[in-house]
Amino acid sequence: MTTDLQLKPSLFDVAVAQGSSTVAVHAGTQRPNAHHALTPPVVQTATYTFADTADLCDFMDARMWGAAKGRTEYGRYGNPTVTAAETKLAALEGAQAAVLYSSGMAAVTSTLLTLLQSGSHVVITDDSYRRTRQFCLNFLRKFGVECTVSPMGDYEALEAAIRPTTKLIISESPTNPYLRVLDLGRVADIAKRHNVRTLVDATFATPLNLRPLDFGIDLVVHSATKYLGGHNDLLAGVVAGSEQLIALLRQNLWMLGGVLDPNNAYLLVRGLKTLALRLQRQNENGIRVAQFLESHPKVERVWYPGLASHPDHEAASRQMSGFGGVISFEVKGDLSAASRVVDGVRIPIIAPSLGGVETLIEQPALMSYYEMSTEERLEVGIKDNLIRLALGIEDADDLIADLSQSLDST
Ligand SMILES: *Cc1c(COP(=O)(O)O)cnc(C)c1O
Q1: Domains and CATH numbers, the chain
Q2: What is the pTM of this model?
Q3: Distance from the alpha carbon of residue 252 to the mean position of ligand 1, in angstroms
Protein backbone atom coordinates (compact mmCIF):
# COMPACT_ATOMS: atom_id res chain seq x y z
CA MET A 1 0.00 0.00 0.00
CA THR A 2 1.34 3.43 -0.83
CA THR A 3 1.21 6.21 1.71
CA ASP A 4 0.44 9.83 1.02
CA LEU A 5 4.15 10.65 0.86
CA GLN A 6 4.88 7.93 -1.66
CA LEU A 7 2.30 9.24 -4.11
CA LYS A 8 3.89 11.06 -6.98
CA PRO A 9 1.82 14.21 -7.40
CA SER A 10 2.57 16.44 -10.38
CA LEU A 11 4.96 19.32 -10.03
CA PHE A 12 3.95 22.87 -10.85
CA ASP A 13 4.68 23.26 -14.57
CA VAL A 14 7.29 26.03 -14.87
CA ALA A 15 6.55 26.29 -18.60
CA VAL A 16 3.46 28.38 -17.73
CA ALA A 17 5.59 30.93 -15.86
CA GLN A 18 7.25 33.85 -17.61
CA GLY A 19 8.35 35.84 -14.61
CA SER A 20 10.97 34.98 -12.02
CA SER A 21 8.64 35.87 -9.15
CA THR A 22 6.07 33.30 -10.34
CA VAL A 23 8.86 30.73 -10.63
CA ALA A 24 10.21 31.65 -7.18
CA VAL A 25 6.79 31.16 -5.58
CA HIS A 26 5.61 28.03 -7.38
CA ALA A 27 8.50 26.00 -8.86
CA GLY A 28 9.31 22.79 -7.01
CA THR A 29 5.86 22.73 -5.46
CA GLN A 30 3.99 19.46 -5.70
CA ARG A 31 0.30 19.65 -6.53
CA PRO A 32 -1.05 18.48 -4.22
CA ASN A 33 1.55 18.35 -1.46
CA ALA A 34 1.34 15.49 1.04
CA HIS A 35 -1.77 15.77 3.24
CA HIS A 36 -2.99 18.52 0.88
CA ALA A 37 -0.86 21.01 2.76
CA LEU A 38 -0.10 24.22 0.87
CA THR A 39 3.53 24.18 2.03
CA PRO A 40 6.02 21.36 1.43
CA PRO A 41 6.20 19.16 4.55
CA VAL A 42 9.42 19.09 6.56
CA VAL A 43 10.28 15.42 6.22
CA GLN A 44 12.27 15.07 9.41
CA THR A 45 13.70 11.59 9.06
CA ALA A 46 17.16 10.00 8.93
CA THR A 47 16.03 6.82 7.20
CA TYR A 48 13.20 5.35 5.11
CA THR A 49 11.37 2.08 5.65
CA PHE A 50 10.35 -0.98 3.60
CA ALA A 51 7.16 -2.99 4.04
CA ASP A 52 8.85 -6.37 3.52
CA THR A 53 11.78 -7.99 1.75
CA ALA A 54 9.97 -7.98 -1.61
CA ASP A 55 9.41 -4.22 -1.28
CA LEU A 56 13.13 -3.74 -0.53
CA CYS A 57 14.18 -5.90 -3.49
CA ASP A 58 11.79 -4.06 -5.85
CA PHE A 59 13.40 -0.82 -4.79
CA MET A 60 16.95 -2.16 -5.19
CA ASP A 61 16.13 -3.60 -8.64
CA ALA A 62 14.55 -0.33 -9.76
CA ARG A 63 17.59 1.58 -8.54
CA MET A 64 19.98 -0.69 -10.43
CA TRP A 65 18.09 0.25 -13.59
CA GLY A 66 18.14 3.94 -12.60
CA ALA A 67 14.36 3.91 -12.17
CA ALA A 68 13.95 4.28 -8.40
CA LYS A 69 12.34 7.68 -8.73
CA GLY A 70 10.37 9.12 -5.85
CA ARG A 71 12.03 7.39 -2.93
CA THR A 72 15.35 6.41 -1.40
CA GLU A 73 16.46 4.34 1.58
CA TYR A 74 18.55 6.69 3.71
CA GLY A 75 18.62 10.39 4.62
CA ARG A 76 22.04 11.14 3.13
CA TYR A 77 20.76 9.98 -0.28
CA GLY A 78 17.83 12.35 -0.47
CA ASN A 79 14.98 14.11 1.28
CA PRO A 80 11.68 15.39 -0.21
CA THR A 81 11.97 18.82 1.43
CA VAL A 82 15.50 19.21 0.07
CA THR A 83 14.30 18.05 -3.37
CA ALA A 84 11.57 20.74 -3.34
CA ALA A 85 14.21 23.42 -2.71
CA GLU A 86 16.55 21.99 -5.38
CA THR A 87 13.77 21.95 -7.97
CA LYS A 88 12.90 25.58 -7.24
CA LEU A 89 16.55 26.64 -7.49
CA ALA A 90 17.15 24.78 -10.78
CA ALA A 91 14.07 26.50 -12.27
CA LEU A 92 15.27 29.94 -11.15
CA GLU A 93 18.73 29.30 -12.55
CA GLY A 94 17.40 27.99 -15.87
CA ALA A 95 19.42 24.83 -15.15
CA GLN A 96 18.62 21.19 -15.85
CA ALA A 97 19.40 20.33 -12.23
CA ALA A 98 20.66 21.65 -8.90
CA VAL A 99 22.11 20.04 -5.78
CA LEU A 100 22.03 21.49 -2.27
CA TYR A 101 24.74 21.32 0.40
CA SER A 102 24.98 22.16 4.07
CA SER A 103 26.81 25.45 3.34
CA GLY A 104 28.27 27.46 0.49
CA MET A 105 31.75 26.17 1.30
CA ALA A 106 30.50 22.56 1.34
CA ALA A 107 29.18 23.23 -2.18
CA VAL A 108 32.48 24.74 -3.35
CA THR A 109 34.78 22.14 -1.79
CA SER A 110 32.64 19.13 -2.82
CA THR A 111 32.49 20.43 -6.39
CA LEU A 112 36.25 20.92 -6.60
CA LEU A 113 36.93 17.51 -5.03
CA THR A 114 34.66 16.01 -7.70
CA LEU A 115 36.05 17.79 -10.75
CA LEU A 116 39.77 17.71 -9.88
CA GLN A 117 42.30 14.98 -9.35
CA SER A 118 45.98 14.66 -8.59
CA GLY A 119 47.91 16.36 -11.42
CA SER A 120 45.04 18.73 -12.27
CA HIS A 121 45.56 22.47 -12.52
CA VAL A 122 42.97 25.17 -11.81
CA VAL A 123 42.89 28.88 -12.59
CA ILE A 124 41.10 31.12 -10.10
CA THR A 125 40.55 34.86 -10.51
CA ASP A 126 41.67 37.14 -7.69
CA ASP A 127 39.30 39.12 -5.44
CA SER A 128 37.52 35.79 -4.90
CA TYR A 129 35.98 34.48 -1.66
CA ARG A 130 38.88 34.03 0.73
CA ARG A 131 38.05 30.48 1.85
CA THR A 132 37.64 29.31 -1.77
CA ARG A 133 41.06 30.76 -2.62
CA GLN A 134 42.57 29.13 0.49
CA PHE A 135 41.06 25.77 -0.46
CA CYS A 136 42.56 25.99 -3.95
CA LEU A 137 45.96 27.35 -2.97
CA ASN A 138 46.60 25.43 0.26
CA PHE A 139 44.29 22.48 0.78
CA LEU A 140 44.16 21.07 -2.77
CA ARG A 141 47.96 21.26 -2.96
CA LYS A 142 48.08 18.34 -0.50
CA PHE A 143 46.42 16.24 -3.19
CA GLY A 144 48.74 17.34 -5.98
CA VAL A 145 46.40 19.93 -7.51
CA GLU A 146 48.09 23.12 -8.70
CA CYS A 147 46.44 26.51 -8.78
CA THR A 148 47.17 29.79 -10.57
CA VAL A 149 45.61 33.08 -9.45
CA SER A 150 44.78 35.32 -12.41
CA PRO A 151 43.90 39.02 -12.10
CA MET A 152 40.17 39.73 -12.47
CA GLY A 153 39.36 41.36 -15.80
CA ASP A 154 42.66 40.43 -17.56
CA TYR A 155 41.46 37.92 -20.17
CA GLU A 156 44.87 37.55 -21.85
CA ALA A 157 46.41 36.58 -18.50
CA LEU A 158 43.54 34.17 -17.90
CA GLU A 159 44.09 32.42 -21.23
CA ALA A 160 47.88 32.41 -20.77
CA ALA A 161 47.47 30.71 -17.37
CA ILE A 162 45.80 27.68 -18.97
CA ARG A 163 48.04 24.59 -19.18
CA PRO A 164 47.47 21.17 -20.77
CA THR A 165 46.52 19.90 -17.27
CA THR A 166 44.05 22.72 -16.56
CA LYS A 167 40.64 21.26 -15.73
CA LEU A 168 38.73 24.21 -14.35
CA ILE A 169 38.47 28.01 -14.33
CA ILE A 170 36.90 29.33 -11.12
CA SER A 171 35.57 32.85 -10.86
CA GLU A 172 32.94 34.99 -9.16
CA SER A 173 30.58 37.73 -10.25
CA PRO A 174 30.19 40.14 -8.62
CA THR A 175 33.25 39.63 -6.42
CA ASN A 176 33.81 40.42 -2.79
CA PRO A 177 34.55 43.15 -1.80
CA TYR A 178 35.13 45.13 -5.03
CA LEU A 179 32.06 43.91 -6.95
CA ARG A 180 34.10 43.09 -10.03
CA VAL A 181 32.04 41.50 -12.81
CA LEU A 182 33.42 39.04 -15.34
CA ASP A 183 32.62 39.09 -19.05
CA LEU A 184 31.11 35.62 -18.76
CA GLY A 185 30.67 34.95 -22.48
CA ARG A 186 34.32 35.76 -23.08
CA VAL A 187 35.49 33.43 -20.29
CA ALA A 188 33.20 30.64 -21.52
CA ASP A 189 34.69 31.03 -25.04
CA ILE A 190 38.26 30.87 -23.74
CA ALA A 191 37.43 27.81 -21.65
CA LYS A 192 35.71 25.98 -24.52
CA ARG A 193 38.67 26.64 -26.84
CA HIS A 194 40.93 24.88 -24.34
CA ASN A 195 38.44 22.20 -23.31
CA VAL A 196 38.33 23.48 -19.72
CA ARG A 197 35.26 23.60 -17.47
CA THR A 198 34.01 26.81 -15.83
CA LEU A 199 32.56 27.41 -12.36
CA VAL A 200 31.17 30.80 -11.32
CA ASP A 201 30.19 31.78 -7.78
CA ALA A 202 27.26 34.15 -8.32
CA THR A 203 26.25 34.51 -4.65
CA PHE A 204 26.28 38.32 -4.86
CA ALA A 205 24.00 38.32 -7.92
CA THR A 206 21.40 35.57 -7.34
CA PRO A 207 19.79 33.98 -10.44
CA LEU A 208 17.46 36.99 -10.64
CA ASN A 209 20.26 39.44 -11.39
CA LEU A 210 22.62 37.13 -13.31
CA ARG A 211 22.32 33.66 -14.82
CA PRO A 212 25.86 32.51 -15.67
CA LEU A 213 24.64 29.34 -17.42
CA ASP A 214 22.93 31.52 -20.07
CA PHE A 215 26.42 32.77 -21.03
CA GLY A 216 27.88 29.28 -21.49
CA ILE A 217 29.31 28.78 -17.98
CA ASP A 218 29.19 25.08 -16.94
CA LEU A 219 28.37 25.33 -13.24
CA VAL A 220 27.05 28.09 -11.01
CA VAL A 221 27.46 27.98 -7.24
CA HIS A 222 25.77 30.08 -4.55
CA SER A 223 26.07 30.45 -0.85
CA ALA A 224 22.31 30.13 -0.28
CA THR A 225 23.06 31.51 3.20
CA LYS A 226 22.93 34.96 1.62
CA TYR A 227 20.16 36.28 -0.69
CA LEU A 228 18.52 32.93 -1.44
CA GLY A 229 17.70 32.18 2.21
CA GLY A 230 17.45 35.91 2.69
CA HIS A 231 16.82 36.13 6.44
CA ASN A 232 20.21 35.41 8.02
CA ASP A 233 18.77 32.32 9.70
CA LEU A 234 20.23 29.38 7.75
CA LEU A 235 23.41 28.10 6.10
CA ALA A 236 23.18 26.36 2.72
CA GLY A 237 24.96 26.09 -0.61
CA VAL A 238 23.80 25.11 -4.09
CA VAL A 239 25.37 24.12 -7.40
CA ALA A 240 23.35 24.22 -10.65
CA GLY A 241 24.20 22.96 -14.12
CA SER A 242 23.64 20.11 -16.56
CA GLU A 243 21.85 16.93 -15.50
CA GLN A 244 25.08 14.99 -16.10
CA LEU A 245 27.40 17.18 -13.99
CA ILE A 246 24.89 17.54 -11.15
CA ALA A 247 24.40 13.74 -11.07
CA LEU A 248 28.17 13.37 -10.68
CA LEU A 249 28.20 15.92 -7.83
CA ARG A 250 25.28 14.18 -6.16
CA GLN A 251 27.04 10.79 -6.26
CA ASN A 252 29.99 12.32 -4.43
CA LEU A 253 27.78 14.23 -2.00
CA TRP A 254 26.44 10.85 -0.88
CA MET A 255 30.04 10.02 0.08
CA LEU A 256 31.35 13.40 1.23
CA GLY A 257 28.22 13.86 3.30
CA GLY A 258 27.68 17.63 3.42
CA VAL A 259 23.92 17.31 2.90
CA LEU A 260 21.35 19.98 3.75
CA ASP A 261 19.09 19.44 6.73
CA PRO A 262 15.33 19.28 5.91
CA ASN A 263 14.50 22.12 8.33
CA ASN A 264 16.97 24.40 6.58
CA ALA A 265 15.60 23.27 3.22
CA TYR A 266 12.15 24.32 4.41
CA LEU A 267 13.43 27.75 5.50
CA LEU A 268 15.17 28.08 2.14
CA VAL A 269 11.94 27.29 0.23
CA ARG A 270 10.14 29.83 2.37
CA GLY A 271 12.81 32.47 1.81
CA LEU A 272 12.93 31.86 -1.95
CA LYS A 273 9.23 32.68 -2.33
CA THR A 274 10.01 36.35 -1.64
CA LEU A 275 13.39 36.45 -3.41
CA ALA A 276 12.12 38.54 -6.32
CA LEU A 277 10.45 41.10 -4.03
CA ARG A 278 13.40 41.34 -1.68
CA LEU A 279 15.92 41.65 -4.47
CA GLN A 280 13.93 44.29 -6.29
CA ARG A 281 14.13 46.43 -3.14
CA GLN A 282 17.80 45.60 -2.60
CA ASN A 283 18.63 46.53 -6.22
CA GLU A 284 16.79 49.85 -5.75
CA ASN A 285 18.45 50.51 -2.39
CA GLY A 286 21.82 49.64 -3.96
CA ILE A 287 21.69 52.22 -6.72
CA ARG A 288 20.26 54.97 -4.47
CA VAL A 289 22.74 54.47 -1.62
CA ALA A 290 25.66 54.10 -4.06
CA GLN A 291 24.75 57.40 -5.74
CA PHE A 292 24.42 59.10 -2.36
CA LEU A 293 27.82 57.79 -1.19
CA GLU A 294 29.51 58.80 -4.44
CA SER A 295 28.29 62.38 -3.99
CA HIS A 296 29.46 62.62 -0.36
CA PRO A 297 32.62 64.71 0.25
CA LYS A 298 33.94 62.34 2.94
CA VAL A 299 33.81 59.35 0.60
CA GLU A 300 36.88 58.77 -1.52
CA ARG A 301 35.61 56.02 -3.80
CA VAL A 302 32.53 53.84 -4.23
CA TRP A 303 32.62 50.32 -5.70
CA TYR A 304 29.21 49.43 -7.13
CA PRO A 305 28.73 47.88 -10.59
CA GLY A 306 25.64 50.02 -11.19
CA LEU A 307 27.75 53.21 -11.15
CA ALA A 308 29.39 54.42 -14.38
CA SER A 309 32.60 54.87 -12.35
CA HIS A 310 32.93 51.12 -11.69
CA PRO A 311 35.55 49.39 -13.90
CA ASP A 312 33.08 46.67 -14.92
CA HIS A 313 29.99 48.84 -15.38
CA GLU A 314 29.77 47.94 -19.07
CA ALA A 315 29.94 44.14 -18.56
CA ALA A 316 27.59 44.39 -15.58
CA SER A 317 25.01 46.44 -17.53
CA ARG A 318 25.12 44.00 -20.42
CA GLN A 319 24.76 40.83 -18.33
CA MET A 320 22.86 41.76 -15.20
CA SER A 321 19.24 42.74 -14.68
CA GLY A 322 20.04 44.44 -11.37
CA PHE A 323 23.26 45.24 -9.51
CA GLY A 324 22.40 43.90 -6.08
CA GLY A 325 22.60 45.28 -2.57
CA VAL A 326 26.30 45.15 -1.76
CA ILE A 327 28.33 48.36 -1.94
CA SER A 328 31.94 48.83 -0.91
CA PHE A 329 33.26 52.32 -0.29
CA GLU A 330 36.46 53.96 0.86
CA VAL A 331 36.17 56.83 3.30
CA LYS A 332 38.74 59.62 3.37
CA GLY A 333 41.24 58.74 6.09
CA ASP A 334 42.62 55.61 7.74
CA LEU A 335 41.37 52.46 9.47
CA SER A 336 39.96 54.34 12.45
CA ALA A 337 38.26 56.98 10.29
CA ALA A 338 36.35 54.13 8.64
CA SER A 339 35.61 52.58 12.07
CA ARG A 340 34.09 55.89 13.22
CA VAL A 341 31.68 55.82 10.26
CA VAL A 342 30.77 52.18 11.05
CA ASP A 343 30.22 52.99 14.74
CA GLY A 344 28.18 56.09 13.91
CA VAL A 345 25.36 54.39 11.99
CA ARG A 346 22.21 53.34 13.85
CA ILE A 347 20.40 51.08 11.39
CA PRO A 348 23.10 48.82 9.89
CA ILE A 349 24.41 46.11 12.21
CA ILE A 350 28.08 45.11 12.40
CA ALA A 351 28.27 41.54 11.08
CA PRO A 352 29.76 39.58 8.19
CA SER A 353 27.44 38.10 5.54
CA LEU A 354 24.98 39.77 3.18
CA GLY A 355 21.73 39.29 1.36
CA GLY A 356 19.37 39.23 4.36
CA VAL A 357 16.59 41.68 5.11
CA GLU A 358 18.72 43.62 7.65
CA THR A 359 21.47 45.96 6.43
CA LEU A 360 24.88 44.79 7.64
CA ILE A 361 28.09 46.79 7.74
CA GLU A 362 31.73 45.80 8.18
CA GLN A 363 35.31 46.77 7.51
CA PRO A 364 36.88 43.85 5.57
CA ALA A 365 40.26 44.76 7.13
CA LEU A 366 38.88 43.97 10.59
CA MET A 367 36.27 41.31 9.81
CA SER A 368 38.12 38.99 7.43
CA TYR A 369 41.75 40.14 7.50
CA TYR A 370 42.22 41.15 11.17
CA GLU A 371 45.43 39.17 11.73
CA MET A 372 47.24 40.90 8.85
CA SER A 373 49.20 44.15 8.92
CA THR A 374 48.12 47.09 6.76
CA GLU A 375 50.92 46.21 4.29
CA GLU A 376 49.93 42.53 4.09
CA ARG A 377 46.33 43.53 3.55
CA LEU A 378 47.30 45.87 0.73
CA GLU A 379 49.11 42.97 -0.94
CA VAL A 380 45.81 41.09 -1.18
CA GLY A 381 44.04 44.30 -2.20
CA ILE A 382 42.20 45.11 1.04
CA LYS A 383 42.39 48.78 2.02
CA ASP A 384 42.05 49.83 5.66
CA ASN A 385 39.56 52.59 4.85
CA LEU A 386 37.22 50.22 2.99
CA ILE A 387 33.68 49.62 4.30
CA ARG A 388 31.36 46.95 2.95
CA LEU A 389 27.69 47.71 3.20
CA ALA A 390 25.28 44.82 2.55
CA LEU A 391 21.90 46.45 2.13
CA GLY A 392 18.72 44.92 3.44
CA ILE A 393 15.15 45.79 2.52
CA GLU A 394 14.78 48.87 4.75
CA ASP A 395 13.71 52.18 3.18
CA ALA A 396 16.46 53.84 1.17
CA ASP A 397 15.59 57.26 2.64
CA ASP A 398 16.19 55.97 6.18
CA LEU A 399 19.47 54.31 5.22
CA ILE A 400 20.71 57.43 3.41
CA ALA A 401 19.75 59.71 6.31
CA ASP A 402 21.54 57.40 8.72
CA LEU A 403 24.74 57.12 6.63
CA SER A 404 24.60 60.87 6.11
CA GLN A 405 24.49 61.69 9.85
CA SER A 406 27.34 59.26 10.52
CA LEU A 407 29.58 60.60 7.74
CA ASP A 408 28.79 64.23 8.61
CA SER A 409 29.53 63.81 12.32
CA THR A 410 32.94 62.15 11.87
C1 LIG B 1 29.41 33.43 2.04
C2 LIG B 1 30.04 33.08 0.75
C3 LIG B 1 30.55 31.79 0.50
C4 LIG B 1 30.54 30.71 1.56
O5 LIG B 1 29.25 30.33 1.86
P6 LIG B 1 28.82 29.72 3.31
O7 LIG B 1 27.38 29.49 3.14
O8 LIG B 1 29.15 30.77 4.33
O9 LIG B 1 29.65 28.50 3.51
C10 LIG B 1 31.09 31.54 -0.74
N11 LIG B 1 31.16 32.48 -1.69
C12 LIG B 1 30.69 33.73 -1.49
C13 LIG B 1 30.78 34.74 -2.58
C14 LIG B 1 30.12 34.07 -0.27
O15 LIG B 1 29.66 35.31 -0.07
Answers
A1: 11-43+79-272 (3.40.640.10), 276-409 (3.90.1150.10)
A2: 0.95
A3: 20
